[in-house]
Design a protein that fits this description.
mainly beta; Lipovitellin-phosvitin complex, beta-sheet shell regions; 2 helices
Length: 275
């Protein structure tokens, strides 16, 4: 039996709408108190410094075991969490170096997963990793999620602002749901993002304090489980800064040295355990 043209068109439209509907997903971090996620984090960086007439380049690779544990539900989708970084290895110009002590950060997470506040930090990375800014890396390791349901091809924009005792950090993020699929055995969404981030912060070394000003530009590809957690992500960024070193307690311009700093950074983070 042939269907009338109008009925056939309506049936095809309903089929198309149903097919499209199966691709529409809501992405959100699930942050119950006590949830713990453990990841392996790899940083690869090329650091180019120029101080006066003295240019220098270093190649770094650092491997960490990092754990995020939700401490408290703050309501309205926000949560307080503790993030630990346990160094496993550090290589500087292809030579093994001392990776330094564990670090711990107590942070506040917003509903979209962004880190909005670093409430406290303990431990200190080796000076050689200071240009990477491990504490400032935390907001860039996880995707910022959309405010509502999305389908493959949909875009969204996000602004992330973070202030701590070393300065301020803001991220202007443009994201897109690139695909739906499987990652690490989990139904997941592939989110591709790009961001720009003006930088204005201080870094404290043993014999100097550095004021760092400039901009980070980067991209990320992240697989996010539909069950509410990051499965894995990789990112690349370029940080271009002006740096002024001053002696501790010194006043402006007295004994200061100015230069430039270029940081080419690649990151890989992957889930290894969850509880």
């Amino acid at each position: 039996m042939r269907l009338p043209g109008r009925v056939l068109a309506l049936a095809l439209a309903l089929l198309a709408a149903t097919a499209c509907g199966t691709d529409r997903v809501s992405l959100q971090y699930v942050l119950p108190s006590g949830r713990s996620l453990e990841y392996r984090l790899v940083l690869e960086a090329t650091v180019r410094r120029t101080l006066g007439e003295d240019p220098r380049e270093q190649r770094l690779e650092a491997v960490f075991r990092t754990r995020q544990t939700i401490l408290e539900d703050l309501g309205s989708g926000r949560a307080r969490a503790v993030v630990t970084l346990e160094p496993e290895s550090l290589t500087v110009d292809d030579k093994q170096a001392t990776p330094g002590p564990d670090q711990e950060f107590v942070v506040v997470l917003s509903p979209d997963g962004s880190v909005t506040e670093v409430e406290s930090a303990t431990g200190a990375a080796p000076d050689v990793l200071a240009p990477v800014g491990l504490d400032r890396l935390l907001p860039r390791l996880r995707p910022v999620l959309p405010p509502g349901p999305v389908s493959p091809g949909d875009d969204w924009a996000s602004d992330v602002d973070l202030t701590d005792d070393t300065g301020s950090l803001s991220l202007d993020v443009a994201s897109r749901l690139a695909a739906l699929g499987l990652a690490g055995g989990h139904r997941a969404a592939l989110i591709r993002s790009s961001y720009t981030s003006p930088v204005d912060r201080r870094a404290t070394f043993e014999n100097a304090i550095a004021q760092i000003e400039g901009e980070d530009v980067g991209t990320q590809a992240a697989w996010f489980a539909l069950d509410g957690f990051l499965v894995r992500a990789s990112g690349d960024s370029v940080g271009d800064y002006r740096v002024t070193f001053r002696p501790p307690g010194g006043s402006g311009g007295v004994g200061s040295v100015s230069g430039t700093l270029l940081v080419l950074l690649h990151t890989e983070i992957e889930l290894v355990a969850r509880a």
